[in-house]
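A.,

Following up on our hallway conversation. Structure tokens first:
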């Protein structure tokens, strides 16, 4: 990229973002990638451990592979050990020297999250990165064994509890990072703490998904305030061709199929946030394609600090042991 054009890049980048389709697609990724600084060094995470939830598929598997390629010891938290092992083998086929371990963890189960965190605390001295990637979009309102609605349990309560339980390990690393994999879909939703479990009205999977993805962005900001010294980030991957999209939104996937990103392209910013020095100097921001983005465009989607604190209180009560 010529020096003369460089001052224009932020403008082009912002235009791509506001136009949504080009920015979220592989076109946006390809354009932005052409002007990024050099990639992280191959040893950026060497000697450090990274935990990725929902790591057996799609973006989670790509994030685990990306962290392994940067030298991290990777703990893949998966609800199905067989699927986890198969994904581990695929990662090792690509990166044979990596240390990759599969741990059983159902993020929607508070008991399972506590058990996985206890194992990690027993086995690890410290934690460089925790990526909250596991995601679902159920067509109907479903409750977990704990009695919580499934999307809020998977996207919000499980990650909240896991972060709390792994705090000692994060505190033991001088440059720890936590990454919430949210979604651009959260822009359509405001924070709702009056009905966090979707008891009112007709349940819609996409609406519950967007609302809980909004909660993740606010939760990242709340954790950023409470974890000094840890970089807590939320990000969105754009649109990537993963089972999450093709199975949950088949019509959308067919419509935008040719312009979907690969899983690696969608996971790029999550991996970058784990290792980039620039990301370590910030906390509480919302990222896409290696750049902080606004958290709201529509005025009705902005929340007050009081509403955010109500989310914290809800999470604290709902995850109490
Ligand atoms: N793909 C996109 O374009 C896109 C866009 C915006 C945001 N995202 C976000 O990216 C994340 C990954 O999605 P994806 O597209 O890669 O979809 P995916 O291929 O369906 O992956 C989702 C992963 O989450 C796991 N998971 C779901 N519920 C879980 C639970 N209770 N406990 C543990 N693991 C659980 C799944 O495990 P199983 O295999 O066992 O089901 C799977 O490994 C999600 O948070 C999603 O919201 C994706």
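Then the amino acids I'd put at each of the 321 positions:
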């Amino acid at each position: 990229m010529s020096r003369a054009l460089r001052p224009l890049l932020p403008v082009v980048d912002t235009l791509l973002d506001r136009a949504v389709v080009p920015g979220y697609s592989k076109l946006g990724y390809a354009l932005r990638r052409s002007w990024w600084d050099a990639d992280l060094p191959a040893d950026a995470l060497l000697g450090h451990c990274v935990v990725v939830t929902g790591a057996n598929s799609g973006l989670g598997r790509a994030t685990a592979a990306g962290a392994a390629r940067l030298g991290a010891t990777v703990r893949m938290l998966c609800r199905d050990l067989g699927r986890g092992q198969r994904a581990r083998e695929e990662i090792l086929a690509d990166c044979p020297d990596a240390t990759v371990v599969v741990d059983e963890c159902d993020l929607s189960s508070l008991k399972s999250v506590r058990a996985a965190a206890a194992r990690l605390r027993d086995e690890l001295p410290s934690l460089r990165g925790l990526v909250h990637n596991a995601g679902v979009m159920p067509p109907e309102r479903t409750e977990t064994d704990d009695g919580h609605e499934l999307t809020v349990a998977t996207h919000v309560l499980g990650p909240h509890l896991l972060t709390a339980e792994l705090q000692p390990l994060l505190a033991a690393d001088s440059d720890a990072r936590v990454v919430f994999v949210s979604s651009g879909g959260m822009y359509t939703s405001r924070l709702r703490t009056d009905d966090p479990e979707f008891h009112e009205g007709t349940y819609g999977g996409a609406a519950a998904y967007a609302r809980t993805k909004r909660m993740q962005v606010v939760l990242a900001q709340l954790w950023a305030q409470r974890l000094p010294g840890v970089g807590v980030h939320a990000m969105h991957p754009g649109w990537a061709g993963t089972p999450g999209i093709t199975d949950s939104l088949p019509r959308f996937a067919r419509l935008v199929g040719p312009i979907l990103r690969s899983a690696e392209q969608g996971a790029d910013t999550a991996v970058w946030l784990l290792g980039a020095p620039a990301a370590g100097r910030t906390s509480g921001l919302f990222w896409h394609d290696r750049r902080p983005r606004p958290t709201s465009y529509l005025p009705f989607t902005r929340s007050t600090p009081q509403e955010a604190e109500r989310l914290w209180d809800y999470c604290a009560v709902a995850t109490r042991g």
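The chain has 14 helices and eight strands. Curious whether your intuition agrees with the design.

B.
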